Amino acid sequence: EIVLTQSPATLSLSPGERATLSCRASQSVSSYLAWYQQKPGQAPRLLIYDASNRATGIPARFSGSGSGTDFTLTISSLEPEDFAVYYCQQRSNWPGTFGQGTRLEIK
Amino acid sequence: EVQLVETGGGLIQPGGSLRLSCAASGFTVSSNYMSWVRQAPGKGLEWVSVIYSGGSTYYADSVKGRFTISRDNSKNTLYLQMNSLRAEDTAVYYCARARSPANWRYMDVWGKGTTVTVSS
Predict the structure, then answer these.
(1) What is the pLDDT of residue B100?
(2) Residue A92: is its pLDDT beyond 90?
(3) Which of A53, A60, A73, A79 has the fewest other C-beta atoms within 10 Å?
(4) Pairwise CB contact (< 8 Å): B111 & A43
(5) What is the pLDDT of residue B69?
(6) Helix (H) or strand (E) segment spanning residue A48
(7) Integer Cα distance of A73 and B63 in angstroms
(8) Which residues of B touch A34 (CB under 8 A)?
(9) Other C-beta atoms lying within 10 Å of the C-beta of residue A42
(10) How many CB atoms lie within 10 A of CB B96?
(11) pLDDT, position A69
(12) Contact check, Cβ <8 Å, A95/B47
């Protein structure tokens, strides 16, 4: 099973700042990686799929990059509603696994 | 509006059974790949099961042989029958729609979830 390790566990930033979240896979997942956002008490929301494709309705400030084992989710300028937990997920290898999450909190 | 609404969660003793339902609106369950994903308290996400539009079903090793995914096309509803429940099955259970058959693990529509607590 492929293990996804997200870093940092918690990221403290202010609105307007740039956020960079990392996801590292224990073996190559090619470009088969997605990012989700989850707010307290809510379901996850698909942001990015196949490493760099924004899902429907996702603002352009969210972007994804990477391939192989190293991936990045970048939020170019944080809005108040962006503070949440972010998960990466791979679909390269059965059964498809999620990372443990990065909590993005207001500084 | 595209929507999923889960029901059926609750408190159940170890070894017991529970059936979760997920009613869909705005799209047809049988035309899509549909999954159940769970989240233990304070933990991350874990994929549980998928049913393809053609009817094939697959399970995570942690639930294989105990859980059964199914659907009722006439009710446009997805189900998860959970038997032989264990404490480690305690979680919020979400149903979710695959973004596309080609990459069904990516889920673009989610319900709000239903909570299952397995405890004596």
Answers:
(1) 87
(2) no
(3) A60
(4) yes
(5) 98
(6) strand A45-49
(7) 31
(8) 105-106
(9) 12
(10) 28
(11) 97
(12) yes
